[in-house]
């Protein structure tokens, strides 16, 4: 009888979809299963997550994948979980939810951030590499304190999304450095929790006790519990590591590990990161996340302003109350037939808002009777690329050291040739497409061989010159497009604020 072959399981929980994938000892994808991430409610500023439904979804996916692996003769050696950072997943001492989770795209607590003096915000950035923003756990804990005091008092552990999933797999509350540092909760000099983020929002330092002990991303937390083993068919005691924030996992999956490497991820969130030394002073970016290599961290500008805009357009024509939509591939094929500039149509990619523009909403400018669906799609993907550029300009101005290698482009923008070319033309830089579909799951799974003491080489990435896209003849057109985009963006604040007042006004 042939012995089963070793594989590693990575879980990637996104705001719209949850994926579980398996990889062989050389990092080749063996199989992937996915499902929509359960949500309780989504309004303009309140984005809640059904915690029990989320855990049940991941367990169901693990069981589905386990059956496929067993049928193919593979035996998993361990599990790692990645998920969106920030947000708040509050549980009691028995690891039971005390209410719905709050997603990282939520902005209900913006008023708390607005009340933090600028110099105090800079103090947090100097200490931790991250600035205060509305979906940080400290800010959301203060929101609970003010609006739901019973939930605040009942919260024993303030978990991240991936820590919630890991706790359900193992029965142990855990945290890792990547998530906690991106929360603005880890002092870069000491690598210990800091109470500064709590202090800035008026919470006591004792609330640090609500955050689980810190671990390296590759540390084994515990083995798979008997309950989850029975539900999935995976072996009881299967090692589960602490895992990492999805931005870090996807960057690892794309191969962005060396100092100066720039990685652009076109997912639900726009992720624009560069690998920098893990020390102070940190680059002046929105958030920095410590990488598994303790000498490095990922300095990032992020926002929910990327491929989710194309997903919205794909579903916008569906009758009310129904799901589905036009395949994104069909929309991108139509967009390829439209010249740069989409016939004078611009799109500001804020269907999910943006932390730096609190009232922002998705906005078409210049629409006319001659525009068709292909123009709309072209404008959307151009607008997404332009806002990535805006964020990358901040990274470049932050003091982060940038290498001279092509920037890595991953996610939906990499898998589309037309979109990848738009990125190269908008950025004015070569981009190297990373075509692996499940970068987050691959990145966190890549930590397992070393964590388990297995003799395995680092997993390869797509670095061939045939995947490198360079700025083309449309570069000049996109320089002008960038100028118009920036001026329109700068002039929209008053209009967005007026619309925000209109949609939040009491109809009575």
Automatic annotation (TrEMBL):
InterPro entries: ATPase_NBD, Carb_kinase_FGGY, Carb_kinase_FGGY_CS, FGGY_C, FGGY_Carb_Kinase, FGGY_N. Keywords: Kinase, Transferase. This is FGGY-family carbohydrate kinase. Signal peptide: none annotated. Residues 263-447 form the Carbohydrate kinase FGGY C-terminal domain. Belongs to the FGGY kinase family. Residues 8-253 form the Carbohydrate kinase FGGY N-terminal domain. It comes from Streptosporangium fragile. GO terms for molecular function: kinase activity.
């Amino acid at each position: 009888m042939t012995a089963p072959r070793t594989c590693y399981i990575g879980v990637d929980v996104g705001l719209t979809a949850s994926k579980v994938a398996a990889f062989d000892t050389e990092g080749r994808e063996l199989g992937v299963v996915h499902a929509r991430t359960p949500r309780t409610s989504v309004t303009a500023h309140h984005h809640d997550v059904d915690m029990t439904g989320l855990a049940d979804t991941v367990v169901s996916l693990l069981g589905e994948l386990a059956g496929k692996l067993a049928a193919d003769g593979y035996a998993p050696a361990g599990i790692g979980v990645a998920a969106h950072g920030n947000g708040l997943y509050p549980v009691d001492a028995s690891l039971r939810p005390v209410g719905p989770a709050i997603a990282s795209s939520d902005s209900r607590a913006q008023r708390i951030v607005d009340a933090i003096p600028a110099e105090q915000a800079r103090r947090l950035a100097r200490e931790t590499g991250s600035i205060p923003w509305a979906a940080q756990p400290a800010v959301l804990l203060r929101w609970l304190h003010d609006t739901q005091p019973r939930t605040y008092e009942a919260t024993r552990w303030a978990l991240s999304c991936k820590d919630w999933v890991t706790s359900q797999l193992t029965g142990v509350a855990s945290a890792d450095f990547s998530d906690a540092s991106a929360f603005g909760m880890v002092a870069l000099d000491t690598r210990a929790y800091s109470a500064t983020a709590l202090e800035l929002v008026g919470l006591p330092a004792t609330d640090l006790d609500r955050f689980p002990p810190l671990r390296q991303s590759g540390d084994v937390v515990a083995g798979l519990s008997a309950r989850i083993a029975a539900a999935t068919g995976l072996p009881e005691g299967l090692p589960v590591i602490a895992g990492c924030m999805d931005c870090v996992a996807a960057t690892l999956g794309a191969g962005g590990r060396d100092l100066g490497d720039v990685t652009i991820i076109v997912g639900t969130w726009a992720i624009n990161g560069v690998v920098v030394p893990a020390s102070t002073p940190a680059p002046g970016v929105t958030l920095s996340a410590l990488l598994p290599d303790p000498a490095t961290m990922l300095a990032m500008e992020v926002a929910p302003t990327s491929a989710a805009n194309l997903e919205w357009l794909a579903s916008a024509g569906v009758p009310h109350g129904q799901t589905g939509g036009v395949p994104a591939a069909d929309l991108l094929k139509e967009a390829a037939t439209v010249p740069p500039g989409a016939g004078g149509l611009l799109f500001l990619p804020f269907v999910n808002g943006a932390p730096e523009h609190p009232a922002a909403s998705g906005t078409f400018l210049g629409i006319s009777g001659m525009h068709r669906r292909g123009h709309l799609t072209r404008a959307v993907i151009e607008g997404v690329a332009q806002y990535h550029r805006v964020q990358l300009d901040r990274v470049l101005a932050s003091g982060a050291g940038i290498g001279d290698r092509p920037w890595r482009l991953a996610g939906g923008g990499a898998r589309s040739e037309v979109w990848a070319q738009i990125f190269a033309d908008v950025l004015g830089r070569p981009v190297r497409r990373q075509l692996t579909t499940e970068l987050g799951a691959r990145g966190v799974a890549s930590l397992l061989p070393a964590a388990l003491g297995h003799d395995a080489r680092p997993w390869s990435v797509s670095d061939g010159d045939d995947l490198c896209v360079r700025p083309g003849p449309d570069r000049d057109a996109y320089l002008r497009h960038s100028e118009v985009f920036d001026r329109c963006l700068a002039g929209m604040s008053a209009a967005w604020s007026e619309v925000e007042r209109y949609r939040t006004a009491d109809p009575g």
